[in-house]
Prior knowledge:
By secondary structure, the protein is mainly α. 50% of the residues lie in helices and 0% in strands.
Amino acid sequence: MYYYMVGCKKHGHHKLVKYAILVPFYWLAMSVAAWVAFYELLTAPHHWSKTKHGLHLKNKKAFIHAKNAIGDELVNNKLIYD
């Protein structure tokens, strides 16, 4: 952790030195994520957790905003709002 602080100072990132104290928590979070992934690999090797995208388009205002932002041809018209 000391090396992170020294590296920040050496490269002129003085404002980042205070965040070097959080590095062990980052390591802990990475370890937990790795163990969870390993457990899921053993218990459900063919499962893939996916994020569902586009559910916000059921909102009329969001649907119209998306059509205006990216164009009619890119927005699936089957996602018509309720």
